Protein backbone atom coordinates (compact mmCIF):
# COMPACT_ATOMS: atom_id res chain seq x y z
CA UNK A 1 0.00 0.00 0.00
CA UNK A 2 1.28 3.44 -0.94
CA UNK A 3 0.86 6.27 1.58
CA UNK A 4 2.49 9.63 2.19
CA UNK A 5 3.61 12.70 0.31
CA UNK A 6 7.10 13.24 -1.06
CA UNK A 7 8.41 16.33 -2.81
CA UNK A 8 10.93 15.69 -5.56
CA UNK A 9 12.64 17.39 -8.50
CA UNK A 10 12.14 16.31 -12.10
CA UNK A 11 15.43 16.56 -13.97
CA UNK A 12 15.83 17.74 -17.58
CA UNK A 13 15.77 14.14 -18.84
CA UNK A 14 12.41 13.44 -17.18
CA UNK A 15 13.85 11.40 -14.31
CA UNK A 16 12.68 11.49 -10.72
CA UNK A 17 13.86 9.70 -7.58
CA UNK A 18 11.28 7.32 -6.16
CA UNK A 19 11.08 7.40 -2.35
CA UNK A 20 12.59 4.31 -0.75
CA UNK A 21 9.22 3.64 0.95
CA UNK A 22 7.70 3.11 -2.52
CA UNK A 23 10.54 1.25 -4.23
CA UNK A 24 9.97 -2.19 -2.68
CA UNK A 25 6.54 -2.48 -4.28
CA UNK A 26 7.85 -1.30 -7.66
CA UNK A 27 11.05 -3.34 -7.83
CA UNK A 28 9.53 -5.89 -10.26
CA UNK A 29 8.52 -3.07 -12.58
CA UNK A 30 5.76 -0.55 -12.90
CA UNK A 31 3.31 1.05 -15.29
CA UNK A 32 2.85 4.79 -15.57
CA UNK A 33 -0.32 6.19 -17.15
CA UNK A 34 -2.37 9.37 -17.45
CA UNK A 35 -4.52 10.26 -14.46
CA UNK A 36 -8.14 10.53 -15.50
CA UNK A 37 -9.75 12.90 -13.01
CA UNK A 38 -6.99 15.51 -12.57
CA UNK A 39 -3.91 16.49 -14.60
CA UNK A 40 -1.58 14.04 -12.89
CA UNK A 41 -0.05 10.62 -13.52
CA UNK A 42 -0.75 7.25 -11.92
CA UNK A 43 2.08 4.85 -11.17
CA UNK A 44 1.10 1.22 -10.52
CA UNK A 45 3.11 -1.84 -9.60
CA UNK A 46 2.75 -4.66 -12.15
CA UNK A 47 0.59 -6.54 -9.66
CA UNK A 48 -1.87 -3.64 -9.23
CA UNK A 49 -1.84 -2.91 -12.96
CA UNK A 50 -2.96 -6.48 -13.66
CA UNK A 51 -5.92 -5.99 -11.29
CA UNK A 52 -6.92 -2.68 -12.85
CA UNK A 53 -8.73 -3.94 -15.95
CA UNK A 54 -11.19 -5.93 -13.86
CA UNK A 55 -11.82 -2.94 -11.59
CA UNK A 56 -12.49 -0.49 -14.42
CA UNK A 57 -14.79 -2.65 -16.54
CA UNK A 58 -17.87 -2.85 -14.27
CA UNK A 59 -17.91 0.91 -13.61
CA UNK A 60 -18.55 1.92 -17.21
CA UNK A 61 -22.13 2.05 -18.48
CA UNK A 62 -22.13 1.53 -22.24
CA UNK A 63 -19.94 -0.60 -24.44
CA UNK A 64 -18.90 2.40 -26.56
CA UNK A 65 -17.92 4.38 -23.43
CA UNK A 66 -15.93 1.42 -22.16
CA UNK A 67 -14.09 1.05 -25.44
CA UNK A 68 -13.40 4.76 -25.71
CA UNK A 69 -12.07 4.96 -22.16
CA UNK A 70 -9.95 1.82 -22.52
CA UNK A 71 -8.36 3.12 -25.72
CA UNK A 72 -7.60 6.51 -24.21
CA UNK A 73 -6.35 5.22 -20.86
CA UNK A 74 -4.43 2.09 -21.78
CA UNK A 75 -2.80 3.58 -24.89
CA UNK A 76 -1.07 6.14 -22.68
CA UNK A 77 0.41 3.46 -20.40
CA UNK A 78 4.15 2.83 -20.42
CA UNK A 79 6.06 0.04 -18.69
CA UNK A 80 8.95 1.46 -16.71
CA UNK A 81 11.59 0.25 -14.31
CA UNK A 82 13.59 1.78 -11.50
CA UNK A 83 17.22 2.40 -12.41
CA UNK A 84 20.10 1.52 -10.04
CA UNK A 85 19.99 5.06 -8.60
CA UNK A 86 16.30 4.67 -7.63
CA UNK A 87 14.86 6.80 -10.44
CA UNK A 88 12.17 6.35 -13.04
CA UNK A 89 12.09 8.10 -16.40
CA UNK A 90 8.76 9.76 -17.21
CA UNK A 91 8.00 9.92 -20.97
CA UNK A 92 7.66 13.48 -22.39
CA UNK A 93 4.01 13.02 -23.46
CA UNK A 94 3.06 12.07 -19.89
CA UNK A 95 5.01 15.02 -18.47
CA UNK A 96 2.99 17.25 -20.81
CA UNK A 97 -0.33 15.63 -19.83
CA UNK A 98 0.31 16.19 -16.12
CA UNK A 99 1.74 19.67 -16.78
CA UNK A 100 4.77 18.78 -14.68
CA UNK A 101 7.42 21.39 -14.10
CA UNK A 102 10.65 21.01 -12.14
CA UNK A 103 9.12 20.56 -8.67
CA UNK A 104 6.73 17.63 -8.31
CA UNK A 105 4.89 15.73 -5.59
CA UNK A 106 4.60 11.96 -5.34
CA UNK A 107 1.47 11.00 -3.42
CA UNK A 108 0.71 7.54 -2.06
CA UNK A 109 -2.96 6.76 -2.77
CA UNK A 110 -3.57 3.19 -1.60
CA UNK A 111 -2.89 1.00 -4.65
CA UNK A 112 -1.09 3.65 -6.72
CA UNK A 113 1.31 6.57 -6.61
CA UNK A 114 0.11 9.83 -8.11
CA UNK A 115 2.60 12.26 -9.64
CA UNK A 116 1.57 15.93 -9.56
CA UNK A 117 3.09 19.29 -10.33
CA UNK A 118 3.98 20.54 -6.82
CA UNK A 119 2.06 23.83 -7.04
CA UNK A 120 -1.03 22.16 -8.48
CA UNK A 121 -0.91 19.50 -5.72
CA UNK A 122 -0.58 22.10 -2.96
CA UNK A 123 -3.59 24.03 -4.29
CA UNK A 124 -5.66 20.85 -4.66
CA UNK A 125 -4.72 19.69 -1.15
CA UNK A 126 -5.63 23.05 0.43
CA UNK A 127 -9.02 23.07 -1.30
CA UNK A 128 -9.73 19.49 -0.22
CA UNK A 129 -8.61 20.19 3.34
CA UNK A 130 -10.83 23.27 3.57
CA UNK A 131 -13.80 21.35 2.23
CA UNK A 132 -13.45 18.46 4.65
CA UNK A 133 -12.51 20.48 7.72
CA UNK A 134 -15.39 22.92 7.24
CA UNK A 135 -17.98 20.34 6.30
CA UNK A 136 -18.32 17.41 8.68
CA UNK A 137 -21.10 16.01 6.46
CA UNK A 138 -18.54 15.45 3.70
CA UNK A 139 -16.39 13.42 6.08
CA UNK A 140 -19.40 11.40 7.21
CA UNK A 141 -20.20 10.62 3.55
CA UNK A 142 -16.79 8.98 3.18
CA UNK A 143 -17.83 6.38 5.73
CA UNK A 144 -20.93 5.40 3.73
- Anisotropy-based shape: globular
Give, in order, the helices and strands. EEHEEHHEEHEEHH
Largest sheet entry = 6 strands, antiparallel
Give the % helix: 40-55%
The poorly predicted ranges are none
Mean pLDDT: 88
Strand content: 25-35%
CATH class: Alpha Beta
Radius of gyration: 16 Å
Q: End-to-end span in angstroms?
A: 22 Å
**What is the level-2 CATH architecture name?**
3-Layer(aba) Sandwich
* Total beta-strand segments: 8
Question: How would you summarize the topology of this molecule?
Answer:
Blueprint: E1 2-9, E2 15-17, H1 20-26, E3 30-34, E4 41-45, H2 46-56, H3 63-75, E5 78-80, E6 87-89, H4 92-97, E7 103-110, E8 112-117, H5 118-134, H6 136-142
Antiparallel strand pairs: 1-7, 2-6, 3-4, 3-5, 4-8, 7-8
Helix pairs in contact: 5-6
Features:
Chemotaxis protein chec; alpha+beta; 6 helices; six-stranded antiparallel β-sheet; two-stranded antiparallel sheet; globular; 144 residues; 28% strand
Structure overview:
This protein is of the alpha+beta class and 144 residues long. The protein has 6 helices and 8 strands, in the order E-E-H-E-E-H-H-E-E-H-E-E-H-H. It has helices at 20-26, 46-56, 63-75, 92-97, 118-134, 136-142, and strands spanning 2-9, 15-17, 30-34, 41-45, 78-80, 87-89, 103-110, 112-117. The strands form 2 sheets. It has a 6-stranded antiparallel β-sheet, with helices on both faces. Strands 2-6 form a two-stranded antiparallel ribbon. The chain is globular and about 45 Å long.
